[in-house]
Design goal:
This protein is mostly beta strands. It is built from nine helices and 42 strands. Strands 16, 17, 18, 19, 20, 21 and 22 form a seven-stranded mixed sheet that branches. Strands 3, 4, 5, 6, 7 and 8 form a six-stranded mixed sheet that branches. Strands 23, 24, 25, 26, 27 and 28 form a six-stranded mixed sheet that branches. It starts with a strand and ends in a 23-residue tail after the last strand.
């Protein structure tokens, strides 16, 4: 006989012990004092929620300083009070039980020592031992509820797998009152009406939640704008807007309704519905469950990048002005390292106290939805320049991150602690119009596009003429596969779909910032591809991380000087075209005036910078006495103030190696003995000022004011996470005998107003493939 033991308080103040039976004959049931009737009804309701006899009734939630909505400090609601779980003997099996009880598939990891902040109140459980198969944390062995010798500095936390359990049904185990339970459902969707379903993105429709494997509506009687704001944020929209309710009322009257049994209470600064509090329970009576109300309708306003050009009132909603916040280094739209503008200079944000709330302010400010994840530890690459903000605290309703409270002193913060975000973006269906086929893994293959031919949509290839890294970057972004690793102009070794061999797209030229391949310049319907498709179709390989090279402006500024060198000492350099063309007619006893400087190039990205060329194609350079793996690695130029070149551009080739590395990082690449070439993450390659060809020949330059420019990886031969910082410009003054180099700046580090004095510094538009 299944039974539950519990205590009932009756009039008279005495306590009596009862046993209430499930599925037992009437003769075995105990008659209760009338005063205990309510308690009986309460406990009987709990019987259905419990899987095993004698198991205490609990509810769980994830709380604390979160960086993802599916992680947090484990909190247990027991006997009308929330408490925490001590990390003693906590294990991944215990984490699995917690996550499954909350409706997630399983746990990804767990964290000791109050990683998500210290809880308050009781520490309900200690020395918890789970096998992983329990249906509730209450079924695991422990010291017993409330028996603990722990402090809140030992509170356990978990990171769950964000996938939900199919068919998961939420059961409220507690009777009444505001328990602070969070919303736990399998899925959420905005169900557009028939006339709206072809719109991209879908911004309006009935809200439905999936619970117990069925889609259900929510009654709008207690629904608020703050609730709508959270839903819009989940779907990639920065805010909610008013809508015409009349057509929805007419539709709701005609449809059979299946309401969810709870209301929802969001404050509006939550990043996900799962962080909102569960409201009161609603008595389900079919179509009459919602009284005078109707199902909730959501209407959202899209950000600039996703709004149709004919969107009414759109221009009023978003003013185009100098942004104060931007994202850098991310592979996908809506993700990257957070940078803020202060006193005309861009800088980063330190990750101390960085959380979902602050990340969501950034995302909404930039026209995206709420934050999917608040990233720490330079996980979107390291920035350059100052750290402008530290210990950021946001309410969640600020219009800009710059309005949040923060510690102006960023002492102790380095770029290793740069904060970043991943934002929710609208579902645009980009992946439906493009695919890669025939590769050895899902990250590589021949590029195939869906295009219209004779009135029908068919798959076809892309002409590989002019196909390069920038085009490959857009393909990888559109498919959600990260950065481009390589762009291929021959794909005969990949067996694509033979029915898709015909060329459907040609003349593709991308800037690298487009969201889809069809946003790039191309020939349109008039396909022109002399090579044809088939073996010459365009292909890509993608990767989740990329390098990011940055030249040290300070080193250039500090090491610049002039040297007059005789031609007889420059024979090797002349053979390698390191001098101006006037040197071809110069006498061997004449001198050349050389602007010398050192180049120190850092890899601030998340993967090593490796040359595209294989060992066998490297070229031996007699001047430097080693092999060069990239024939055009940098451009050095001296230009007039209006951007005209006054000293012939020198295309420097390099042997790439790790000259120095940050503490704790091992050198991996060296030029000697035909060694592997590249620049490791956290290392830098230094070409000293006294090396041959590390100069610009200014023999024919007249005295005056100039701009000195260095561009790394100018032909985009190797993919990087950010090309805007590959260019450096300095102001320089030459009086005929001496040269001054000052105000050296990396591209993208200044505001647009400041950078007007440096033509082309905002965008690296320097090369033509």
């Amino acid at each position: 006989m299944d039974h539950i033991t519990f205590m009932v308080f009756v009039s008279g103040g005495l306590s009596r012990l009862f046993s209430v039976c499930e599925d037992s004959p009437p003769s075995s049931c105990i008659m209760l004092h009338p005063g205990a009737l309510f308690s009986l009804l309460y406990m009987c309701a709990l019987c259905n929620a419990q899987s095993n006899s004698g198991t205490p009734v609990i509810q769980l939630r994830l709380a604390g300083e979160k960086r993802k909505h599916y992680e947090g400090r484990v909190e247990v609601f027991y006997k009308g009070e929330w408490g925490t779980v001590c990390d003693d003997d906590f294990s991944i099996q215990t984490a699995h039980v917690v996550c499954r009880e909350l409706g997630f598939m399983d746990a990804a990891s767990w964290s000791p020592s109050a990683k998500f902040g210290r809880g308050e109140g009781r520490i309900w459980l200690d020395n918890v031992h789970c096998t992983g198969g329990e249906k509730s944390l209450a079924q695991c062995e422990s010291n017993g509820f409330g028996v603990s010798d722990c402090k809140h500095s030992e509170d356990a936390g978990v990171v769950c797998n964000q996938k939900r359990i199919p068919g998961y049904k939420f059961i409220r185990n507690q009777a009444h009152g505001d328990e602070g339970l969070t919303v736990q459902v399998e899925d959420v969707r905005i169900r557009a009406t028939y006339s709206q379903r072809k719109r991209v993105p879908i911004t309006e429709g009935f809200l439905e939640v999936k619970d117990g494997g069925k889609w259900r509506q929510i009654c709008n009687e207690e629904w608020t704008e703050m609730n709508s704001r959270v839903i819009c944020g989940m779907y990639g929209f920065p805010g909610e807007k008013r809508f015409n309710s009349r057509p929805y009322k007419l539709l709701a009257k005609r449809r059979k309704k299946n309401y969810w049994g709870f209301s929802v209470n969001c404050t509006g600064n939550e990043a996900n519905l799962s962080e909102c509090k569960l409201g009161r329970e609603i008595e389900l009576k079919g179509n009459n469950s919602c009284g005078q109300g109707m199902p909730v309708v959501i209407s959202c306003i899209p950000g600039r990048a996703f709004a149709s050009s004919i969107s009414i009132g759109f221009s009023k909603a978003y003013r185009v002005e100098q942004p104060l916040v931007r994202l850098r280094g991310g592979a996908m739209i809506g993700e990257g390292r957070v940078e803020v503008l202060k006193n005309g200079e861009w800088g980063t944000v330190c990750d101390d106290n960085w959380n979902l709330r602050a990340a969501t302010v950034v995302c909404r400010e930039l026209g995206f939805g709420s934050a999917k994840e608040a990233l720490t530890g330079g996980r979107q690459g390291q920035g350059i320049g100052p750290v402008h903000m530290n210990e950021v605290e946001c309410s969640g309703f600020e219009k800009s991150l710059t309005e949040c409270h923060f510690n102006r002193e960023s002492l102790g913060c380095s770029h290793e602690e740069d904060a970043a975000v991943k934002c929710n973006v609208p579902a645009m269906g980009f992946k439906n119009r493009l695919r890669i086929n025939g590769g050895r893994n899902p990250y590589e293959g021949r590029v195939e596009v869906l295009a219209e031919k004779n009135g029908t949509l068919v798959w076809g290839t892309v002409c590989s003429d002019s196909w390069g890294t920038m085009e490959a970057m857009v393909v990888c972004r559109q498919l959600g596969l990260g950065f481009a690793s390589h762009a291929f102009q021959e794909t005969w070794y990949w067996q694509g779909d033979s029915s898709a061999d015909a060329v459907m797209m040609s003349g593709v030229r991308c800037s690298g910032t487009e969201l889809t391949l069809d946003q790039c310049l191309h020939h349109g319907k008039h396909v022109l591809c002399p090579k044809g498709g088939g073996r010459f179709a365009a292909g890509v390989s993608c990767t989740q991380s990329a390098p990011d090279l940055v030249l040290s402006a300070q080193v250039v500024e500090q090491t610049t000087y002039l040297e007059d060198r005789p031609m007889y000492a420059l024979q090797c350099a002349q053979e390698e075209n390191c001098l101006s063309t006037s040197a071809d007619k110069a006498d061997s006893t004449s001198y050349r005036r050389l602007l010398r400087f050192s180049s120190q190039i850092h890899n601030n990205g998340l993967s090593d910078f490796r040359p595209r060329a294989a060992h066998h194609s490297w070229i031996w350079h007699e001047c430097h006495r080693h092999y060069h793996s990239m024939e055009v690695f940098t451009h050095y130029d001296l230009m007039s103030l209006n951007g005209t070149k006054v000293a012939e551009g020198h295309k420097a080739s390099f042997c790439l190696e790790d000259t120095y590395c940050d503490e704790g990082i091992q050198k991996r690449y060296e030029c000697a003995n035909f060694g592997a070439q590249g620049i490791t993450v956290g290392c830098w390659d230094t070409y000293r000022h006294d090396i041959d060809c590390q100069w610009v020949d200014i023999t024919d330059v007249k005295p005056g004011d100039y701009i000195f420019q260095v561009v790394i990886n100018p032909n985009y031969e190797v993919a990087e996470s950010d090309y805007t910082n590959n260019i450096m410009k300095c102001r320089s003054r030459y009086d005929g005998q001496r040269i001054w180099m000052y105000n050296c700046r990396i591209g993208g580090t200044l505001s647009s107003e400041t950078e007007e004095t440096f033509p082309g510094l905002l965008t690296n538009q320097l090369s033509h493939r």
